Amino acid sequence: MKGLIKLVCAAFLMACFFTGCEKVSYDEYGCFIEADQALKAAKKNNQELMVMIIMPGDDDYSTFFVENVLKSDEFKSEILPNYAVLNMDFSQASFQKTVVDTNSDKASQKAAEKYSQTVQNNTKLASRLNASFTPCIYLLSADEYYLSEISENTGFSFEDISYKTFKSYMDDIADDVENLKGYINAAKKSSGQEKIKAIDNLYENTPVIYRPILSSYIDQMVKLDSKDENGLLSKYLFAQADAKATEAYMNNDILSASNTYAEVCKNEMLSNSHKQQAYYMAAYILLMHNSTDYSTALSYLNSSIQADPESESVELIQNVADYLETLMAAQSEPAGAE
Q1: How far apart are CA 128 and CA 126, in angstroms?
Q2: What distance separates the 2 farthest-apart alpha carbons in the chain?
Q3: Which residues have CB under 8 Å from 135's CB, separation 6+?
Q4: pLDDT of residue 11
Q5: Full-model pTM
Q6: Mean pLDDT in the chain?
Q7: Which of 50, 68, 254, 324 is most deeply packed, by most CB within 10 A?
């Protein structure tokens, strides 16, 4: 056995020699600064991932959080050992680390390039979480599924924050976090009809905005209920399109995001209600991002109305279509025409 251990250690050292062992990067508070490293640590140690999105120095609440929570002894002794903590600093001071003078030495330039890559990778995760303001703290499972959000959006106040108020809020949401972890565990370990039920429970108990993160389970549901024996196929066909469109949107591929919604409407198993939603989203994405392809957007809106003409949403959709027709008519008038 000792010989085997020595052999394994030798192989490991040899691999490090030729490929280079990855150096883990921590900030001054003991948190990971690179998303990939934090995710690996969460998986390795089967810990929850705590993602902090802050801009200290640029917004007061982020500064309060750093001063009163991150710097506290309790954070170091109670949070850091029990979570894979990722601190994503998007402040101007942080971005300055990506900029170096052209006359800087190679070491400084290399450090700036490395930090720039870190910011890019962290930005991708922030986009997946749909982060739109700071400060915001997320709890994710070791498998990167949503567990909770701590922000003003969920009723948490950073104005008079202390470690005590932060920990108290975490204690308050502990039951909800455990419930979601239970749904995740059931979805992972179950099979057959039980798996279908478990995934649907997980999906329904995940806030709408974070459901695209469940894309792997959504894909499984499309296969598991491919004959619609559980009446869930349309729901997950739409969810699948929504997840794919969201990914395209995050990559700034607006046309692909719109097309994804339009394409799913060709599936005969999609219900009229979901078809209406999908066509509307296809148009909405184009219009909200300054697309000049008004004819395509109008076509999607009309198709949305036709998909489910008796729904309560038709009036709203028709109003958007009427406005768009007015806009198109105005643009087609000759210059100077009255």
Answers
A1: 5
A2: 93
A3: 52, 53, 54, 55, 59, 61, 62, 65, 151, 158
A4: 33
A5: 0.83
A6: 88
A7: 50
